[in-house]
Every structure is written in C-alpha cells, then in structure tokens.
C-alpha cells in the first residue's frame, strides 16, 4: 500500500461540531476513544474537513462521525477522492462510503429484490409535480427529503390539502440537489423504526426508535425514544441477507426499516456514519471493539 507509514497510526474521522447534529445520547466518540486505548492502538481524532491534517501520516482511517458531510457534499467527495489517491485504507471503505452517501443506492437494493419503502426520485432542477405522487402512492400524505441528507435535514411531511404551501421552498431546494418522495409510512408513527446493527457482517444488537406523539421523525433530537429489542430468528435471517448482499465487507452496518404485515421495508442501509447505539449494552460495545481489533489485525 503506497504512502503507508511503518507504524500503524489510525485517524478516527469526526466532524467540525457546530451542534446541529450532535447526539444528546452517549457520545460514541468518547466510547470509541476508550476502546482504542484498551486495544493499545496509536490513534488521533481528526476532522475530515481540516486542511491542516497531513493524511499521509496515517495508515488507516476509521470513519466514525463525519456528520456534516451532506452539508458539504462536494467538498466531502473531493476529500474521499484524495484519500483514495493517497492509497490509505479506511473502515468502512471509501468506495462503500461514496456509494452509501447518496440514497439513490436504495434503487439498486430494490432491483436486487429487497423491498424498500416505495420511492420516486426528483432530479435536480426538475419541475415539481407532487400531486401526481399522491395518486401514484394512493396516499393523502407524502414525505419528501434530499437524497443526500441526514438528521432529517429538509425533510417534510406533506398533506394532499396543504402541500402547495411548501411548493416554493421545495422548488428552491430542487435547484440545488436531488430529492426523493415516499408515501408516509403509518407504522413509523404508530410503532417506530427498527435498527439492526452488524459488525464485520455479524449481528450485534437491535433497537426500536419510536417518535414522540404527533411526530413522524424518530431521531432523539425530535423527542424520539430508543428501546433495545431482541429480533425473532426469522426476521434476523432476512436482515442478514441484506447485509450479506451489500455490506459483507464492512466494519459496521446499520439496517433501518419497518415491518408491515410480515414484510420488512428498508428505509436506509447506513454504512457511512451511523450512530451505533453502543450505550444499549456492554455486549454491544464489546462486539464493536472486537470487530475493530479483527480489522486492524488484518493490516498489521
């Protein structure tokens, strides 16, 4: 591997924390720091967008929380390309990160036979004709969000009666980036969204993220609650197929979705910077720690 230092020095990738997407749950960067120290590894936390970082000094990047990548997407893609040119390996890989950074990837997953929440895409600068999607999805409520996003940024719940109130805003957003349109999934509001965590392709733990009453976004900063769950064997076997097909070689993968009448509808396959819900249990933390150890051992 070109430009790799003789000593295995690791850069843990984080972001310039402005508070917009910071978690009010346990800070996983702090937990990760403790794990890496226990493993006896040489590491430093680095902000991906910091121009002062000399990336060639590192033998490995552990990409944990570049949580502002979607606000600086062009810059982020240029940084990824630079890391590839330097020949520095990363966990997850840069190819995986780039593929997963834009939710057009969901179409590829659907084409492989895995159901996703029904989705139509609005390309940048396309005319806006949202009324047709109410008819197509046979619904009175739509959700619209950017294909490159996180933290429910620019995500709207639109009713058939009042969507025009947001038309100007959406059309302005469409001048800048692609969007996706989906029917509102009632199960998210009623039950919540399931997240299944895998390390090195093996199941670790799972949670149910439930929105507060009257809210459709499940993130904790919108009042959502997180509950540990034990998946049924049949459910887990199906989720494993998604991971085996699209995330078999990843350090971490988070599969998000909803169950409706026995069918799992994928909402996101998080391979770039997911919150891992490590606070759920010591077992979850140990699973992640062992997975990192196994990956690093391959490179030493």
Explain what you see.
The protein has 300 residues and is α+β, with helices and mostly antiparallel strands. The protein is 30% helix and 25% strand. It has nine helices and 13 strands. A five-stranded antiparallel beta sheet has the order 11-10-9-12-13, sandwiched between helices. Strand 12 and strand 13 (263-270) form a beta hairpin. The longest helix is centred in the C-terminal third of the chain and has 18 residues, at 282-299. It is globular and about 60 Å long. The chain starts with 8 loop residues before the first strand and ends with a helix. The model is unreliable at 1-6 (pLDDT under 50).
Biggest sheet: strands, sense, closure? Answer: 5 strands, antiparallel
Instruction: Kindly provide the radius of gyration, computed on alpha-carbon positions and rounded to a whole number of angstroms.
Output: 20 Å
**Which class of secondary structure composition applies to the elements?**
alpha+beta
What is the string of SSEs from the N terminus onward? EHEEHEHHEHEEHEHEEEHEEH
Indicate the overall shape.
globular
Percentage of residues in DSSP E strands: 15-25%
Task: Reconstruct the topology from this structure.
Layout: E1 9-14, H1 28-38, E2 42-47, E3 60-63, H2 73-86, E4 90-91, H3 94-100, H4 105-111, E5 120-122, H5 131-136, E6 141-146, E7 156-159, H6 167-174, E8 179-183, H7 186-190, E9 193-199, E10 202-210, E11 225-229, H8 233-246, E12 252-260, E13 263-270, H9 282-299
Parallel strand pairs: 1-2, 1-3, 3-4
Antiparallel strand pairs: 5-8, 6-7, 6-8, 9-10, 9-12, 10-11, 12-13
């Amino acid at each position: 591997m070109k430009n790799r230092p003789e000593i295995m020095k690791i850069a843990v990738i984080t972001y310039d924390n402005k508070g917009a997407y910071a978690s009010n749950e346990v800070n996983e960067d702090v937990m990760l720091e403790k794990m890496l120290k226990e493993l006896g590894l040489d590491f430093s936390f680095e902000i991906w967008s910091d121009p002062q970082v000399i990336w060639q000094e590192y033998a490995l990047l552990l990409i944990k929380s570049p949580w502002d990548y979607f606000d600086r997407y062009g810059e982020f893609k240029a940084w990824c390309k630079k890391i590839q040119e330097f020949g520095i390996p990363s966990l997850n890989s840069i190819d995986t990160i780039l593929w997963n950074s834009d939710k057009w990837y969901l179409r590829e997953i659907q084409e492989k036979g895995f159901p996703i929440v029904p989705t139509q895409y609005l390309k940048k600068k396309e005319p806006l004709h949202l009324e047709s999607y109410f008819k197509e999805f046979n619904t009175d409520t739509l959700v619209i969000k950017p294909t490159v996003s996180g933290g429910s940024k620019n995500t709207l719940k639109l009713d058939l009666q009042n969507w025009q109130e947001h038309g100007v805003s959406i059309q302005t957003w469409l001048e800048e980036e692609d969007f996706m349109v989906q029917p509102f999934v009632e199960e998210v509001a009623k039950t919540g969204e399931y997240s299944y965590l895998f390390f090195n392709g093996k199941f670790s733990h799972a949670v149910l993220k439930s929105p507060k009453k009257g809210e459709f976004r499940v993130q904790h900063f919108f009042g959502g609650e997180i509950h540990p769950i034990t998946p049924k064997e049949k459910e887990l076997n199906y989720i494993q197929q998604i991971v085996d097909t699209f995330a078999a070689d990843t350090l971490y993968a988070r599969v998000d979705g909803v169950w409706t009448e026995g069918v799992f509808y994928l909402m996101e396959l998080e391979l770039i910077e997911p919150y891992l819900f490590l606070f759920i249990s010591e077992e979850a933390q140990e699973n992640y720690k062992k997975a990192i150890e196994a990956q690093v051992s391959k490179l030493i």
